[in-house]
Amino acid sequence: MTAQLEYPDPQESEALLSVQGLWKVFGPKAARVPRRPELAELNRATLYDRTGCTAAVRDLSFDVAPGEVFVVMGLSGSGKSTLVRCLTRLVEPTAGRLIFEGEDLRAADEKRLRTLRRSKFSMVFQHFGLLPHRKVIDNVSYGLEVRGESKPDRKRRAQEVIDLVGLSGNENMYPEQLSGGMQQRVGLARALANDPDVLLFDEPFSALDPLIRREMQTEVVRLHREVGKTMVFITHDLSEALKLGDRILLMRDGAAVQLGTGDELVGAPADDYVREFVRDIPRADVLTLRWIVRPPRDGEQLDGPELGPDVLVREATRLVLESDRPVKVVAEGQLLGVIGDEEILAVVADAAPSGATTLYGASGASGSATLASGSSGSGPAVPGAPGSAASSPRS
Ligand SMILES: Nc1ncnc2c1ncn2[C@@H]1O[C@H](COP(=O)(O)OP(=O)(O)O)[C@@H](O)[C@H]1O
Ligand SMILES: [Mg+2]
Q: Which residue ranges does the record assign to the ABC transporter domain (predicted)?
């Protein structure tokens, strides 16, 4: 395929990391699979039957912006771990390009790769990967030791990140003396110690109890706020993805199904697979007012209270229901539209609309009989509607 010629010049890209047409195929003569369209098109089972190959990652393209939390989500076996390992070439990609800070990672030699892995990337694993015979502080400073930093420097830096992740006082414990949550805090501290540009997480909290897991998610949100690192975060858990991700890439059988913000996945699922995935999510906690705003009707009074388009439906519910006028949705002095009780109730009452696909369809297609006016004629003419913001990460 000649698609490579069409990629933008990496020097001009604003992405920190750019993944372009990436494939990882396991099996005999793997390299022919991406090259030959008649093989590349086959679904996973047929490809395996015909060639003995598994396409763990198929033709993925996405950019990660500096400072972004980029979540990769998918069921077990969808290729998440393979993808994240390809990013630092711990797994060697079969085809495609990896551009990091303008550098072609696939052209890097072993020495350069080792340097990059030590200084630019850090990985946090599901099973912690701590060294059992080393104290917490020595686990945390291990990477700095490998990098040849002096003992006082190591110690100072290790203590800094131990304090940062809330482990102060546990410096001299051994991993087995700590709970799972605490062990993963050590994993986090170790990843932060070498001050990487990108933190890679491969389902780091999957082994933890739900309560501890939520605590750790909050911890990651806090750390991100404090240290502002770019993160690529793998999970199979939608609520975790929604809580952490600026954008979410949903994978299925190695391929991308949808890439967007959490409210885009919930508000405008790309297909039935995504719709099924997001079905049980409380929509009012994810959707913002821009998803349910509608043009004012003739004769409607426009002197109600004002809210911004990024307010969550959940947060607006009380105000809208208590107001006897429609609430105006206003951005930068411009009226985007209005919201009344019906729009709110369609989201709050109907946790899983079956046919919701588009901005206005979300309320129009929800089956609520109160929406008599329907959605015809109210197409997405609203400036700043989610469709137009689809490619820009939230920040
Ligand atoms: N080293 C390997 N050799 C052959 N197949 C592999 C290898 N690693 C992963 N796979 C296959 O690739 C697919 C994706 O695996 P993985 O990336 O681990 O998915 P996930 O992390 O989403 O659970 C699976 O079908 C898995 O069996
Ligand atoms: Mg995995």
A: 42-278
